[in-house]
Design brief:
With 297 residues, the protein is of the alpha/beta class. It has helices spanning 43-50, 58-65, 68-71, 104-114, 142-150, 172-179, 201-204, 207-214, 230-245, 261-278, 286-291; strands spanning 3-12, 22-28, 100-102, 129-133, 159-164, 185-190, 220-227, 252-256, 281-282. The model has no long low-confidence stretch (mean pLDDT 91). The chain binds iron/sulfur cluster (SF4).
């Protein structure tokens, strides 16, 4: 089995608990969600997007209608969108061929080639983190991660984060492997989707899945919610309570919605104040401040 991934790149972690940590990102292909409503301004527009079972938000649909697939040669040449899922080319099957299909040997060589010294733990002992992101990295690719982590050239890898929408159960084999693997510090960066995404509560808020992640021996986890307006703070409270009722207690980060750096600066302060009032943590989008909204950051 080969891994399909849209990009791998070296950057600093821009969000959540490890902000600023030099990390290699591996963006796997495929997601069970579409999150069509992110950044769509009005409730009317949001509703229209969902009418007649639309599969794409207006921006992605316009790209497809305009022949973007035929016109574009590489993943990196695909335009950035400002609404819906910001990694649209990693989730829609139409964009599958812009993604790479590689054996684990090839993936490992690619990942290591991105690190400053061709290894995870540098000569001075500082380590580079590996972030598995997507799409949704805990879909069927779970089957390949044991091979990835057990690869001889990954032996000095110390920190792995899964950036997950927290809807996918761990396969038994993978769960057992993680429970018995001591050299990697594993973190679940859990980003459940609120209604602002366009996904439904029942599909998106899965306390039993979060509980399963929390039970992996020696692992760490935190929640990271994307919020757009005051109503979303109430939803975060409701979600956190649902997770707590399932026995999951961990730090909660809030991150303002926004793919465009100018949009981002509009609501940063509101989100920070809401965090201070409730004891939540504020997460910036450091990579956007540093590099703008672009692939490979
Ligand atoms: S869960 Fe994440 S990757 Fe999946 S559609 Fe939503 S924003 Fe995109």
């Amino acid at each position: 089995m080969k891994l399909r991934y849209s990009e791998a790149f070296y950057s600093v972690q821009g969000e959540g608990q490890f902000v600023g940590v030099p990390s290699v990102f591996l963006r796997t292909f495929g997601c069970n969600f579409r999150c069509m409503n992110f950044g769509v301004d009005t409730k009317k527009d949001r509703w229209e997007q969902h009418a007649e079972g639309q599969r794409y938000n207006a921006e992605v649909k316009a790209l497809l209608d305009d022949g973007i697939i035929e016109k574009t040669k590489t993943f990196e040449d695909l335009p950035i969108v400002h609404t819906g899922c910001d990694t649209y080319a990693s989730i829609y099957p139409e964009f599958k061929d812009f993604n790479k299909l590689a054996t684990i040997d090839e993936v490992v060589e690619h990942l290591l080639s991105l690190t400053p010294q061709g290894k995870w733990t540098q000569d001075d002992g500082q380590d580079i983190h590996l972030i598995l992101t997507g799409g949704e990295p805990l879909l069927a690719w779970q089957r390949l991660y044991v091979e990835l982590f057990e690869h001889p050239r990954m032996a000095d890898l110390k920190n792995v984060t899964f950036e997950t929408n927290t809807t996918q159960h761990l396969h038994d084999d993978f769960y057992n492997y993680l429970n018995n693997h001591e050299t990697i510090k594993l973190t679940f960066s859990c980003s459940p989707k609120l209604s602002v995404s366009g996904e439904s509560w029942d599909d998106a808020i899965k306390p039993d899945v979060a509980r399963e992640y929390s039970l992996v021996d020696g692992s760490d986890m935190y929640f990271k919610f994307v919020v757009a307006d005051q109503e979303d703070f109430n939803e975060v409270e409701r979600a956190v309570e649902a997770y707590r009722n399932a026995g999951v207690q961990c730090p909660v980060y809030l991150m303002p919605l926004g793919g465009r750096s100018e949009e981002y600066s509009l609501n940063v302060k509101d989100v920070a104040e809401a965090c201070m009032a409730r004891g939540w943590r504020f997460s910036p989008r450091l990579h956007i401040s540093l590099f703008g909204n672009a692939w490979g950051t």
